[in-house]
């Protein structure tokens, strides 16, 4: 979807273009109209002047006083012409030379205007009027060339368009600056959301416009609720495991009594031991996860040492050496608690089965690649495909219930990653490869 700034910028730009185009068109039309009206008023003034120069002799023939007529009407093709018609005479201005005009006959007191092509391809405005003078019907038509004023109008339109475009450009720049300034709170909130996603912040800043503040408050409230529920869930798991241990201890003590049949005693001991192992696993997961903000990301430089130390204490009876090959300042692109669960399960499996060595390799290019190898007995290649199934174990003699790698596979699948199991070529034991997309969220 197009960004809000792009949509606003596009809408405002189109509005400005439409407004300036309409303004240019309106001004151009009005300038042409006013120019034509001005020329028509000047022609009307010349018509009245020409009418005053007309007289009739004793034989009722039209006589003009040439000395009172503007010299422009005597210059050939000057762009100013007149035609006078009476019932028996037709008089043209000398400027027409041997050309003629298309005269529209009008009634007395009625004015007619027309546009026509005159001598030398001139664009003429012709104004025709009819008068009664000394009992004679007189028709006077005066034409003026519109070419010079049309040239001025075109020049005006050009410079007006240049000025309008310049103003439009300035307004667009101002509009962009105003939009960027107005949308800065949104950009800052977007940056804070990315920091929140990366675990650098635990809530959004409320220093924002009043329109955004309700949304930010709701997001912060939701984050607080999610964090509280996550903490309560982990605390409940830990409390449940502790609570189950006490009655289990009582049951285990009762099974040691001699009055219980050996067969029943063996069943009770086996089931009690299984429940003990499950509760130990829940407590171990709670110790590994600890308490932190739910949206934080896993840092290999900060969080991994604590995880390794915890596992070292759990398996203190085994003298294990773990070799780490990890890029500096590497951040896992998934939730911190999910990463602790994922790495905790795989490393716990490696600690459990290894004899003396574990290799942990982490690098990130297009994907985050985690590889964990041990020098234990390894697994049959034909059976490794079933390891991601809950409850599946390749050795029933070793403590455990086969849920760890299945949970790990679920986490990897949730983040659209890949997990595979094989034999380590370097150490000869079990090898786990995990690929997680860097931009998965």
Rg on CA atoms, Å:
49 Å
Q: Reading side by side through the largest sheet, how are the strands ordered?
A: 4-3-7-6-5
Separation of the first and last Cα atoms: 18 Å
Percentage of residues in helical conformation = 40-55%
Provide the residue-averaged pLDDT: 80
- Please give the CATH architecture of one domain: 2-Layer Sandwich
The helix/strand class is alpha+beta
Strand elements, count: 14
Number of helices: 8
CATH class descriptor name of one domain: Alpha Beta
Low-confidence stretches: 287-294, 388-402
Q: Encode the helix/strand succession as letters.
A: HEEEEEEEHHHHEHEEHEEHEE
Question: What is the CATH topology assignment of one domain?
Answer: Beta-Lactamase
Biggest β-sheet: count, sense, barrel?
Answer: 5 strands, antiparallel
Give the CA-based shape: rod-shaped
Beta-strand percent range: 15-25%
What is the topology?
Layout: H1 4-52, E1 54-56, E2 62-64, E3 80-85, E4 90-92, E5 112-117, E6 123-133, E7 136-145, H2 147-182, H3 184-197, H4 213-255, H5 262-289, E8 297-299, H6 304-314, E9 321-326, E10 331-335, H7 336-353, E11 357-364, E12 367-374, H8 404-414, E13 418-423, E14 430-437
Helix pairs in contact: 1-2, 4-5, 6-7, 7-8
Task: Considering the chains and any ligands shown, give keywords for the structure.
single chain; 8 helices; five-stranded mixed β-sheet; Heat Shock Protein 90; 441 residues; alpha+beta
